[in-house]
Amino acid sequence: MPKTMQIAWVGLFVLGASMAHAQESIPSLPYENGSVEEGATKAATCIACHGPNGNSSVPEWPNLAGQNAVYTATQLRMFRSRVRNNPVMAPLAANLSDKDIDDLAVYFEAQTPAGLEADPSYWQDGQALYQAGDVEREIPACVACHGPAGVGNPGAGYPALRAQHSVYTVKQLNDYASSVRYQGAAEQGAGSAPVNAHMMTTVAERLTPEDIRNLASYIQGLR
């Protein structure tokens, strides 16, 4: 298939998935009332895991610097409600008010990712899959939702991926594939999970362990 047709197919795949949930996939923006200054104070408890200014030095814990506020606010609310029932984050988020979440979300969005390097053994294969997908396996290009530089799409609820630890990315893709990332939604009703979760689960199920490794390496080196 010519590359232009491949790109068009990828765009249609994502557009169709997005339009199916057009109303639900555009999140509300409660974080607009957040304060970067107040968030800086409240983020002091986050430093132990996520590092100064949201740049984590531990690969198992995600970088939060530069993450769009709508995504961070949404995830913190899901930790709080235990839809995303992480044993570390759920208890911490349980004590956060809506204002706390809004402040933290805008604070981390205002920070600059420090940047990491991609593994030279894998990033080129990861780049090919990220940018073009795989038509034969019905895997859309990551670029369609997360952008060429991995900055995401706040309006659609798609997170920034750039400079994220590859170890963390591998775990999240595996969690999507095994349907455990939002496992709390099964107890609270299907509607409690984000609408993008189904799309990510479908994509992740089609990825091989090598695909996941390669993508994670490429994403780690994105600027």
| Cα Rg | 17 Å
Largest sheet: none
Find the count of extended strands (DSSP E, 2+ residues). Answer: 0
The separation of the N and C termini measures 30 Å
Q: Regions with pLDDT < 50 over 5+ consecutive residues?
A: 1-28
CATH level 1 class label: Mainly Alpha
What class, by secondary structure content? mainly alpha
Quote the average pLDDT: 87
Q: What is the CATH topology classification name?
A: Cytochrome Bc1 Complex, Chain D, domain 2
Helix content: 40-55%
Annotation field: number of helices = 13
Per CATH, the superfamily is Cytochrome c-like domain
Principal-axis shape equals globular
**What CATH architecture would you give?**
Orthogonal Bundle
The structural domain count equals: 1
Secondary-structure element sequence?
HHHHHHHHHHHHH
**Could you tell me the strand content as a percent range?**
under 5%
Topology overview:
Blueprint: H1 3-20, H2 22-25, H3 36-42, H4 47-50, H5 69-81, H6 89-93, H7 98-109, H8 123-132, H9 143-146, H10 166-177, H11 185-188, H12 196-205, H13 209-220
Helix pairs in contact: 3-7, 5-7, 8-13, 10-12, 10-13
